[in-house]
Amino acid sequence: MIFGGIEFCRHALDQLQSKIHFVRNELFVDRQAAMRELLAIQRLDSDNISIVARKYQVCPFELSLDVSNWVDVIIGDYNYVFDPTVMLQRYFGEGRAKHVVLIDEAHNLVDRGRDMYSTSLAVDDLFVATGTREDKTTEKIRRALGVARDQLEALMKSASTGVPRPKPYHRGAFVAEAVPEAFIETLRALDRAIEVFLVERSSRELALPWLEPYFAVHRFLQVSDAFDETYRVIIDPGNQSLTLFCLDPSKRLAQTLKGLRTAVFFSATLSPLDYFIDVLGGSAESAKGCYASPFRTDQLTVRIAPVNVSFQERGRSMDSVVEAIRRQLRENPGNNLIYCPSLAYLDQLHQKLGS
Asked: How many Cβ atoms are within 10 Å of 136's Cβ, its own excluded?
């Protein structure tokens, strides 16, 4: 009986493995066909990628990564290079040193870098919705969540009664220079417990509610591992949150730059230049230059139209904007670039200009 049961399980497993192998091969073939069709299109934008991915029923993000191996230039947001959580590891991981990155409007990378290397954890992040299916493991994790939540609330209470009182413009928040280690250790234990649970659970329904607290805790721990003198801890009783804030992103940016062949930062507002070289992870050896505009001064005209394009007034001012643009096009035939405050405004303006 036991022998027969084992043989049945082996037979069922062999069948399952053959089906999985077939499905994997089928998916691989679909992705290959999707790649060939997509590479035949000159414009590889999000719309075309989505259309082809939908046709072949493959993941559009994975498809975009596949075809990226066959293109010369990738255009994307800063975070695909510098953010450790979403960085394209195949291109910008450690030891690559063969890619050239061109960084437009580089002055914005300072604040973006602070955001990418900072993180917050709120009391509300340490909850799982009521009604979630439970077993012995989830009951244990829920208790661990409760411990972490109690410790975070205790930090909020100790901060709100702290001396000296925070400045009024801080809205009750406090700044500290050290991470509360006891709380971090509690989070590490919680992170391990949820991770083991997620690995062992094949039921998507059972695992799904625990993903949100897991990612919040895991991200917080990742940043805490990088915590040094360039960081500060912000305890905010008003928002019931603890933030690890990166004051100076230059060190982290420099680590990423080491993995590149070269990086070119450019912007019309990189001044003072030495300051931006420092905060963007450069060094004394970094090449630098300041170049005059290729346009003559008599080619520049500034015109200010008394038109209110705020959200509430756009409908009433649209005709005036259309007339101003038409006058510009009549007086300056050729290529003209028009910026709009939103895509919706662009659509309305396009319709008016075409009518």
From this structure: 6
Q: From the CB of residue 152, how many other CB atoms can be counted at a distance below 10 Å?
A: 22
CB 114 within 8 A of CB 247: yes
Domains of the chain: 2-72 (no CATH), 119-246 (1.10.275), 297-354 (no CATH)
Contacts of 193 (CB under 8 A, 6+ apart): 140, 141, 144
Radius of gyration of the chain (CA): 27
DSSP bridge pairs for 241: 122, 236
CA-CA distance, 142 to 135, in Å (whole number)? Answer: 10
Asked if 307 and 321 touch (Cβ cutoff 8 Å), the reply is yes
Residue 124 has pLDDT above 50, yes or no: yes
pLDDT tens for residues 285-325? Answer: 999 999 988 888 888 888 888 888 888 888 899 999 999 99
**What's the order of all strands across the beta sheet hosting 174-176?**
119-122, 241-246, 231-236, 174-176
Both structure tokens of 201: 């659970």
Q: Is 310 exposed, middle or buried (0-12, 13-18, 19+ CB in 10 A)?
A: exposed
Identity (one letter) of the amino acid at 34?
Answer: A
Provide the greatest CA pair distance for the chain.
Answer: 96
What angle, rounded to 10 degrees, do the helices at 60-68 and 46-56 form? 110
Residue 336 has pLDDT above 50, yes or no: yes
Q: Report the alpha-carbon distance of residue 113 to residue 248 in Å, rounded.
A: 8
Separation between Cα atoms, residue 141 and residue 90, nearest integer Å: 34
221's torsion region: left (phi>0), alpha (psi -120 to 50) or beta? alpha
Contact 50, 60 (CB under 8 A): yes
> In the beta sheet, which residues pair with residue 176?
233
What mean pLDDT is predicted for residues 255-272?
A: 92
Across-strand partners of 232? 245
What pLDDT shows up at residue 8? Answer: 31
Dump pLDDT digits (tens) for 125-140. Answer: 999 876 666 667 788 8
For 137-193, the pLDDT digits (tens) are: 788 888 999 999 999 999 888 766 655 555 655 677 888 888 899 999 999 999 999
Q: Report d(CA 309, CA 313) in Å as an integer.
A: 6
